[in-house]
Amino acid sequence: MTFLETIIEKKHSRVESEKKVRDADVLRRHALEVRSKTEPHRFRKALSQPNRVNIIAEIKRASPSKGLINDRIDVASVARSYENGSAAAISVLTEQDFFKGSIDDLKTARAATMLPILRKDFIIDEFQIYEAAEAGADAILLIAAALNDNELRKYINVADELGLDVLLEVHDLGELERAKRCCAAIIGVNNRNLHTFEVSLDVSRELALHKPADSVFISESGLSSVTEIMKLRGLGFDAFLIGETLMRSSSVVKELRELTTSEQVI
Question: Is 98 exposed, middle or buried (0-12, 13-18, 19+ CB in 10 A)?
């Protein structure tokens, strides 16, 4: 099995166990109540600012490819540092088994910052979307490689009902075309192949040639320098998701400000 298949198999088992503990209808009502008090589509608005470098700063404890990155983080402190460093939004890894995250990490980040928050996980059931909304997320990640077109459309509709944004992640031209057919408003180009975990910025460079005119376009994974970001910005990317570089940084606020400073904008 590939990395992605292994993760998805485990995720199905996890979700089924969680659904035995929590009533899905009750969860949905709680999610709708939370979202009724929250401005819809904050995530997309935050990433659509044209006169700045829009960074989605990620809270990530570990990954299958890198192992432990920073398992002793103070999530609230990191979230505040990201806000102080002028990040446009925050991504929180909530996958438990391979990334060592949790929905509690998202709740902690939500309590610590006003920035829009993306729940980054392997979503394979609408239960997880309601869970994300209840916890305070403004957006969810859907992975094209993990879902068929009917599932993508279904989960996009569920998210829209809640006023949540969807970051639809693609890795190749075929998946990008699928995202277009689903009318994805936010498309993330993952430079990491989720089957092999190999990383190449050539993925973003190639797919930039096919950017939909009406979608927010995000480059994800493998980004570590202002030079890389500015080159991709010049190719049409609207925002950039950065995780490991920031999680390993000894000066998060300074590093983020260097990435987002107006003097760097072209």
Answer: middle
Per-residue tens of pLDDT for the chain, all 266 residues = 788 999 999 999 999 999 999 999 999 999 999 999 999 999 999 999 888 899 999 999 988 777 788 778 899 999 999 999 999 999 999 999 999 999 999 999 999 999 999 999 999 999 999 999 999 999 999 999 999 999 999 999 999 999 999 999 999 999 999 999 999 999 999 998 888 888 899 999 999 999 998 999 999 988 878 899 999 999 999 999 998 888 888 788 998 988 887 444 44
Domain ranges of the chain: 3-261
Dist. CA 146–CA 123, nearest whole Å = 8
Tell me which of 54, 120, 126, 193 is the catalytic residue.
Answer: 120
| Catalytic residue check, 120 | yes
Does the annotation mark 263 as catalytic?
Answer: no
Known catalytic membership, residue 254: no
- Which member of 11, 58, 81, 100 is catalytic? 58
CATH of domain 3-261: 3.20.20.70
The DSSP bridge partners found for residue 168 are 142, 187
Residue 57 backbone dihedrals phi, psi, to 5 degrees:
-90, 130
Which is catalytic among the residues 190, 204, 215, 219? 190
| Catalytic status, residue 131 | no
Catalytic residue among 134, 191, 221, 244: 221
Q: Is residue 169 annotated as a catalytic residue, yes or no?
A: yes
221 annotated active-site: yes
Q: How far is CA 127 from CA 137, 202, 217, in A?
A: 14, 35, 27
Active site residue 250: no
